Amino acid sequence: MTVPQPPNITPPPVRQMRNAELAGLAKGGGPYRGKAVFELIDRAKSDDDAATRLGELSRLSALREDRAFHLVSLAWAAIIGLLAAETPYARSVAYGAFAALAGTDQAELLAYVKAGRIEDAHPQV
User: Fold this and answer.
1) Rounded to whole angstroms, how far apart are CA atoms 26 and 31?
2) Would you say 105 and 81 are in contact if contact means Cβ atoms under 8 Å apart?
3) What is the per-residue pLDDT for 4?
4) What are the residues whose beta carbons fall under 8 Å from the beta carbon of 47, sequence distance 6 or more?
5) Distance of CA 53 to CAs 20, 21, 23, 84, 124, Å?
6) Are 82 and 97 in contact (CB under 8 A)?
């Protein structure tokens, strides 16, 4: 039995993409969804629009179900990235995104970042 070769897909140039394009890539699914989310995370510290888009993306069921690794979904990654940005705006977006999670997800995320309250979470990425 021969295993077929995967298609040769050129990765998108996420560093050159606008925030709206990255959000569209993340919403559209596919193998580069995570790459788009992590590029927005990199921008959130100095770009409120990137932070806003991360907050919106964290509410999508597709990103809540798509795991970056183990328990960490792409939605969690977005929230953690917002918290790590440590700007007042990014943190307020993170608090809203966290509040939109189901109670079980909230508890598991708090355990993951080792905080009793979301306001006490100061993860580093």
Assistant:
1) 9
2) no
3) 75
4) 19
5) 8, 11, 7, 16, 20
6) yes
String of DSSP letters for 22-71: HHHHHHH-STTHHHHHHHHHHHTTT-HHHHHHHHHHTT-HHHHHSEEETT
Q: What is the DSSP letter of 100?
A: T
What is the predicted pLDDT for the residue at 72? 87
User: For 6, phi and psi rounded to 5 degrees?
Assistant: -70, 155
Q: Given a cut of 80, is residue 5 above it in pLDDT? A: no
- Residues 108/109/111/114 CA torsion (nearest 10 deg): 180
Which residues are CB-neighbours of 82 under 8 A, at least 6 positions away? Answer: 41, 44, 51, 54, 55, 90, 91, 93, 94, 97
* pTM attached to this predicted model: 0.90
**Could you give the C-alpha distances from 102 to 65, 76, 123, in angstroms and in order?**
12, 12, 21
The pLDDT tens digits of the residues spanning 23-59 come to 999 999 888 999 999 999 999 999 999 999 999 999 9
